[in-house]
Amino acid sequence: MNIPGDQARLQAHYDALGAGQDAEAWYEDPAFDDLCANCRFEEARAVVEVGCGTGRFAERLLRSHLTPRATYFGLDLSTVMVNLTRSRLAEFGARCRIEQGDAAAGLPLGEGVADRVVMTFVLDLLTPAETAAVLDEARRVLAPGGVLCAASLDRGRGLASRLRSFGWNLVHAIAPLKVGGCRPLTLPDTLGPGWSASYYVRRSIRNCAIASISAQPLPESWDEHG
């Protein structure tokens, strides 16, 4: 797989981090809670996750929220993360498929095959061009009525969280991998006018601002004329 320089460095970072990613649960889990409460995963027949990481959220979905017939597909840039997810989800057998790849280059899936596309702490890793490409892929693979379920670092509202966000952005500008390559953003702005949000929640966890959102793609004619 031919990976551009910045993505190759990101892959190497997460290959090295490995299971250490689970130490970020203190701010990731509250966002996972919000997604589980608001995205109606119980209704999903097929879930696609872009950036599956160690498989921690996937395991939670499969164990507690998806029906026994629902399937899961996970994609990650990191070889190590793919192997960790495969190991973590082994008990769920053929219901799960996990592959290595770059979603911005295309998801190895047909059109309209997913009821939910999940991106947790992924959009805050991407460049604007990569974000546009990944969102186009999410739109392509979502079935009619399907939902994008995303979480990210947020710019914050209170003084403490805004100061932390400012510091995070400063470090990201100088040495992106010092903060895992991610930076705070505003999810509705990141999705843009082509998506309609049904819920959007922002939280501050130990002065770290996070957000989660569920949204559906608007018809392309709305994008052009809305």
Description of the structure:
The protein is α/β, with parallel strands linked by helices and 226 residues long. The chain has a single domain (5-225), classed as Vaccinia Virus protein VP39 (Rossmann fold, 3-Layer(aba) Sandwich). The chain has helices at 5-17, 25-38, 56-64, 79-88, 128-141, 159-174, 187-191, 220-225; strands at residues 46-50, 71-76, 96-100, 114-120, 142-153, 195-205, 208-217. It has a 7-stranded mixed beta sheet with strand order 3-2-1-4-5-7-6, with helices on both faces. A hairpin with a 2-residue loop joins strand 6 and strand 7.
- Using only CA atoms, what is the Rg? 17 Å
Please give the CATH class: Alpha Beta
Name the CATH homologous superfamily. Answer: Vaccinia Virus protein VP39
Q: Kindly, what is the distance between the CA atoms of the first and last residues, rounded to a whole number of angstroms? A: 39 Å
What do we call the CATH topology?
Rossmann fold
Number of strands: 7
Total count of helical runs of at least 4 residues: 8
CATH architecture: 3-Layer(aba) Sandwich
Tell the overall outline.
globular
Overall SS class: alpha/beta
Strand content: 15-25%
List the helices and strands in order.
Answer: HHEHEHEEHEHHEEH
Helix content percent band: 25-40%
